[in-house]
């Protein structure tokens, strides 16, 4: 079994790293540590001017979600806390919600909710649910975005 936490940062050809990530099983992806995700955000995320905060966005073609009503746009590292930028498509509107990474990966199934108002001003609760498979695909998208961004010049030379 490959330890992805070290394999991502080894001096290996980017094409080989992409192959490794694409072939990882669900449990291997879920085994990626929070420290690895923080390192990814710090290495290729955009630093907010005059602060130690970072934003890391996944390109639209690599974004993954729950195959129902939401997908993860990226990560925020603000004041040392890591959060997911979650885009949710509701019945009559769309919105973006910030979900703490610890909450998202804590349980087997993450069940997020958001309160919205309908046309008549009634409060309604909308849910977005992520199981193990969807969480693993979200992590895969972070890793693929990291390699494709960090080694962009080396990958474009091979094409």
Can you give a write-up of this model?
- It is a single chain.
- The chain has 159 residues and is an alpha+beta fold.
- Helices cover 38% and strands 30% of the residues.
- The strands form two sheets. It has a five-stranded antiparallel sheet with strand order 1-2-3-4-5.
- Strand 6 and strand 7 (123-130) form a beta hairpin.
- The radius of gyration is 17 Å and the shape is globular.
Fill in the keyword field for this structure:
159 residues, five-stranded antiparallel beta sheet, 7 strands, alpha+beta, globular
Helical residues, percent: 25-40%
Strand neighbour order, sheet with most strands: 1-2-3-4-5
Based on CA atoms alone, the radius of gyration comes out at 17 Å
Percent strand: 25-35%
Number of strands: 7
Characterize the quaternary organization of these chains: single chain
Sheet with the most strands, sense and barrel status: 5 strands, antiparallel
Q: Helix-strand pattern, N to C? A: HHHHEEEEEHEEHH
Low-confidence stretches: none
């Amino acid at each position: 079994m490959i330890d992805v936490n070290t394999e991502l940062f080894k001096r290996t050809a980017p094409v080989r790293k992409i192959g490794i990530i694409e072939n990882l099983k669900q449990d291997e992806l879920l085994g990626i540590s929070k420290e690895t995700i923080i390192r990814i955000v710090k290495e290729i995320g955009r630093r907010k001017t005059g602060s130690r905060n970072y934003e890391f966005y996944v390109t639209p073609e690599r974004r993954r979600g729950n195959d129902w009503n939401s997908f993860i746009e990226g990560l925020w590292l603000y004041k040392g806390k890591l959060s997911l930028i979650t885009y949710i498509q509701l019945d009559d509107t769309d919105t973006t919600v910030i979900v703490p990474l610890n909450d998202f990966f804590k349980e087997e199934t993450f069940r997020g909710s958001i309160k919205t108002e309908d046309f008549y001003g009634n409060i309604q609760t909308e849910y977005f649910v992520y199981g193990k498979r969807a969480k693993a695909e979200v992590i895969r998208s972070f890793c693929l975005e990291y390699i494709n961004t960090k080694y962009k010049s080396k990958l474009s030379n091979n094409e």
